[in-house]
Amino acid sequence: MSAIAPSAALASSPTTEIPLINIQIDGQWMQFPKGTRLIEACKKAGKFIPHYCYHPKLSSPGNCRMCLVEIGTPKLGPDRKPLLDSEGHPLIAWNPRPAISCATEISEGLAVRTDSPLVRECRNAVMEFLLINHPLDCPICDQAGECRLQEFSVEFGKGESRFLEEKVKKPKQVDIGRHIILDDERCILCSRCIRFMQEIAKEDVLGFVKRGSYTTLTVYPGKRLDNNYSLNTVDICPVGALTSKDFRFKMRVWFLKETKSIDVNCGTGCNILIGSRENTIYRITPRENDFVNSCWMPDSHRLNFHYLMREDRLKSPKVNGLDTTWKSAISEASHLLSSHPSSKIAILASARSTLEELFLIKLIIELLGIQQHDILPRPQSGDGFLIAPDGNPNTNGARLTGVAANPPGAQLEKIVTAIRNGSVSGLLSLGEDPTKIGLTDQELQKLNFLIVLDILPNRSTAAATIVLPACGFAEKRGSMINLYGRLQRLNKAISPPGNARDDWEIYRDLLFSLNSPSTTTPRTFEELWKLMAAKLPPLAGLNFGKIGDLGFQLDLPWLEHKGPPPHSAPAPIPPKMPQNGNKSP
Amino acid sequence: MSANNSFPTPFSPTPHPLERRIIFANLTKPDYKPDLITYLAHGGYNELRKALTLKPSEIVAAVKASNLRGRGGAAFPTGVKWGFINPNDGKSHYLVVNGDESEPGTFKDRYILHRDPHQLLEGIAISAYALDVHLAYIYIRCEFPHAARIVSNAIAEARAAGFLGPNILGSSFSLDVFVHQGAGAYICGEETSLLESLEGKRPYPRIKPPYFPAVYGLYMQPTVVNNVETICHIKHILRLGPEEYAKMGTPGDGGTRTLCVSGDVQKPGAYELPAGSVTLRQLLYDICGGPRPGRTFKAVIPGGSSAKVLRIGEKIITKSKNSDGSLSEKQTDILDVIMDASNLAAAGTMIGSGGVIVLDDSRNMLWALNNLNLFYAHESCGQCTPCREGSLWMAKITSRMLSGKGVPSDPRTLLSVANNIAGRTICAFGEACSWPTQSFVEKFPEDFEAAASNPITTLTAA
């Protein structure tokens, strides 16, 4: 299918000079950059134009016809120059034929009516056409509540049917991929999913077969929609044709509380919405941010939240294997720390912790004078798209606070050696499993003390002197700096289980218990930010609120990767063509 | 190949006095064979020789002066279309010949392809030379397998003889021509979906703007798409000279035009007539011999099945300006309407592809419309909503009405569905599938009301 590419004006480079063009929207003259699609211009003018097939990040196929509007061009005089009205604006010659606003680029003097009788009639007709063969199974459809077909039916539809015929039957409950179920009867053939797979995921596995009203979405024979970005097709499906196996039938969407946050599975930090109800997360969906992830995120990341609801979450602080109160756990920890020489203590921190947590860890390091501290690096190959080559979401935060060695991980070998030869006999493992840096269970048991802060049991929690149960990424607020230097916020969607506590509060209480001077120890989150902004130059003038929903770009001297990451997958390597005279049988 | 000449043909051995055979001149001869020897014996490829001595711009100018209009259906002036191509833009240009002839009621191109392929190839070579094209495709529908074979053979013959291929007739001009067979879809006759099909994709029509073939055509390069018959006319424009050629027709519609008459007439067939030279009455009575015995004419679809139907007996009112500036109204009986692009447009329909379908008083118009509706519902590509859903809906309504389950609201619903399609789709299929319903229901209300008498209670709303 031939389609208009997303307009250049939408690309996230507002600095380049794009000439402005005058257009008239519902009688008002306005200016927009050249190359803007009419539907976007109308949106910016506050005139929402209903649409199904159009998606700002995909090409415009113009197939749904929902965005038909009346357009006109300047009336020309005998000298081929526009005739002007008393205010100097061109008079308009209205085109009797409606035009699609999604594939129309604005041009000088273009006029549009977004709510004329003809436009309303067009929308009404398209709604009727889309509904006649639709199963209208909203009561059992997962899309109900966030379905464009429902919403536009109410707003632009007739409210009654004059269709007396039998509906077209199509395949239902088609298992087309690891995470996706397809209901072809619900499909309105907008082709968004097909275009996403072609243009963004670059794995062209979806397509239409048959024709006319019998047209059916399917996967190519022998192929499956198993791409790691497949669930984005569910997000952009305007109806309930594509549903997520992980989410379907679990929860009505209108019950979901949506919390803006970020993905913590890699250094990209995809912006997300956490959908939760009554302290349970039901789904995670990507949130648009052109500085980071556009509208997309990998399946493997969005589905990685179920562990937060695991039964075996650490729920109570423990000392020597026994449940205890926070008060006694903290005072026992501070006792152990202050009764050991700082040269015999090492800290294994995590670049999965928030900037705030790492900053407080750094305060502990400075207070006690601990020399041996580092984070566990997670280099990975990445996918050239939204999975970054760093499996840690906040390596830059660990570097900025100085918790990480330079380069991160450089100290780990020294720490392991020191523990093995006994020169270090106390270890704080803060969100990491020390067996992952090569320490054995016996070596951990040999330590004088092992303080573990984490959310789930691992091999080290069994050997720990003190276990401090903390919060998962959806249970706390804080910030992280992604691979490209963008400072972004986590927000609390649900509460932690049992007596688990927000990590930063644990560190704060530990600092106070260690007699950190009250003038330089933050009591509240706001005080914490004040102190960070004062002590860390790249954060000067910032506070948590100023970060904003789309994050804040930091200028870090060591940044190797300049953002944003690519907004589509790398082009697939074409299959090798057989050489001449070497045909495969 | 000689076996093809035993095919029954729609041509009378001697032309009717009103006919002027140019395109059909040779292929209507019983002993005419589709091979190169026969073509050369009839003066073949002389115009190509002549063309190569001209400047390409001179040929484009001649086509403009000839007033030739496209013969595929839209009747777009060919010279204007060619004028969109800038030979000096440094891009690759393509010529694509539309041999998808899929409009029901049209059967002219198949005889050109079957019986006189070299006439087409000579036209292609001249056109390609004029348009700076070095690669041309002939898109032939899959229902014409013989045509594809015959044209492919002709290409091989012409290439071997130096009329195609590198350095044609010793000149610096080279051209390759390939046959591409479709997979069986009406929509592939729409030029942009034909290009998609040619590119190996699902034939979804492209959105215009911006994908006009002259700008973003085949492989996004400037492309001219012309009908088989249109391309055949090119050599005759050179042979006769553009003025002489234009004179045969009317000022707005030059040359000759083929009309394919089918249905309830005594002598159905393909006729080649000077454009704008006959009225519908002359066509039906003089040329086609009038109605079948004992019958009277009821309706005529003048330009292929998607053209709006005309009711015999209806009066066309046309307005014209007098010399003093006042308007005068003229009433014309439908049979006295001249069969050319502008007069049929004034009569509210179109010359289209020239497929004239005649129905007499034995025909029920609901039955006829249902036949067309089923065709369009089957052929809608399904890309855009109104046509995809509306064409099948209309077919379901007319089928239900035919089965005796009509309800009083049906004619109204039919009209409203058709009105909701026309003018709101990506391609002209929206009009093609809704014009029959609009015109049949409006012009023959009695046939529809008769079938729409059932009370609504027999059905339940979905």
Question: Could you outline the blueprint of secondary structure elements for this entry?
Answer:
The complex is a heterodimer of chains A (585) and B (462).
Chain A lengths: L19 E6 L2 E6 L4 H7 L23 E7 L17 E3 L4 E2 L10 E3 L3 H16 L15 H9 L17 E2 L4 E3 L9 H9 L5 E4 L6 E4 L11 H6 L5 E3 L12 E6 L8 E7 L2 E7 L12 H4 L15 E2 L2 E2 L2 H14 L5 E5 L5 H14 L3 E4 L19 H7 L10 H9 L5 E5 L10 H6 L2 E6 L4 H5 L2 E4 L8 E4 L4 E5 L12 H11 L11 H11 L16 E2 L32
Parallel strand pairs in A: 1-6, 17-18, 17-19, 19-20, 20-21
Antiparallel strand pairs in A: 1-2, 3-4, 3-5, 3-6, 7-8, 8-11, 9-10, 12-13, 13-14, 15-16, 15-21, 22-23, 23-24
Helix pairs in contact in A: 2-3, 7-13, 8-13
Chain B lengths: L35 H6 L4 H6 L4 H10 L12 H6 L9 E7 L9 H7 L1 H15 L1 E8 L4 H16 L15 E6 L9 H8 L24 E5 H13 L1 H7 L7 E8 L5 E6 L5 H8 L9 E5 L8 E2 L3 E7 L5 E7 L7 H6 L8 E6 L4 H15 L5 H21 L4 H12 L7 H15 L1 H7 L11
Parallel strand pairs in B: 1-2, 1-4, 2-3, 5-11
Antiparallel strand pairs in B: 5-6, 7-8, 7-11, 9-10
Helix pairs in contact in B: 3-6, 5-7, 6-9, 9-10, 13-14, 13-16, 14-15, 14-16, 15-16
List its salient traits:
heterodimer, A: 585 residues, alpha+beta, Ubiquitin-like (UB roll), Alpha-Beta Plaits, Rossmann fold, 3 domains, seven-stranded mixed β-sheet, six-stranded mixed β-sheet, 22% helix, disordered C terminus, B: 462 residues, alpha/beta, de novo design (two linked rop proteins), five-stranded mixed β-sheet, four-stranded parallel β-sheet, 39% helix, 15% strand, globular
